[in-house]
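Example S7 (structure tokens).
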């Protein structure tokens, strides 16, 4: 197995031969257990708890994910792939502003209930960067919707993908603080942020 370094992460590249069926099942169990553990406890979730939830040994977790950061990166990649699916589906709609707005709301609703994902989006840029494939797909789909809405005159002319990234980074902070019991309201935040992108 070859390895590469990306930011602070040391991630394993794809092995030269496919995983055996039992190894593949264990990896899927670990990812599902990690998703549940991180959703509840955030990035403070422990590998021991993840192994227990997956009904595997701690060594099995580390065989598939050499570090906790690698596991976080794998979950981030899966999440951004899911968000990319949502936004890509929206690019086929005729009203690009409505499609853009609905897609961002769906992405936010998909993320808001997960402590770890809010932490990753709000303040864990290395994990976001490690999710390269999902990020590229997501950015391309967002750019398509922005270009379409600008062409239809429904989005401000200076809007761009970086604005959406900034909005979603702020959303991660707001949603995370709201889950922690703070007075923030991520729905109000997103409503105001989207209104700022509308053409006047």
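Recovered sequence:
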């Amino acid at each position: 197995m070859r390895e590469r370094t990306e930011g602070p992460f040391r991630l394993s590249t794809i092995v030269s031969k496919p995983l055996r069926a039992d190894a593949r099942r264990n990896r899927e169990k670990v990812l599902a257990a990690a998703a549940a553990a991180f959703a509840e406890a955030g990035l403070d979730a422990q590998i021991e708890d993840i192994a227990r939830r997956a009904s595997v040994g701690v060594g099995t977790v580390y065989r598939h994910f050499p570090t906790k950061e690698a596991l976080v990166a794998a979950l981030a990649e899966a999440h951004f792939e899911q968000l990319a699916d949502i936004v890509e589906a929206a690019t086929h709609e005729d009203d690009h502003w409505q499609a853009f707005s609905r897609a961002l709301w769906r992405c936010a609703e998909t993320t808001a209930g997960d402590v770890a994902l809010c932490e990753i989006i709000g303040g864990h840029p290395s994990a976001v960067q490690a999710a390269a494939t999902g990020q590229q797909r997501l950015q391309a789909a967002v750019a398509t919707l922005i270009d379409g809405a600008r062409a239809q005159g429904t989005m401000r002319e200076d809007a761009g993908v970086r604005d959406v990234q900034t909005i979603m980074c702020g959303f991660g902070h707001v949603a995370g603080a709201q889950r922690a019991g703070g007075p923030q309201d991520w729905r109000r935040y997103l409503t105001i942020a989207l209104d700022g992108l509308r053409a006047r």
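Notes on this example. The chain has two domains: 3-69, 73-197.
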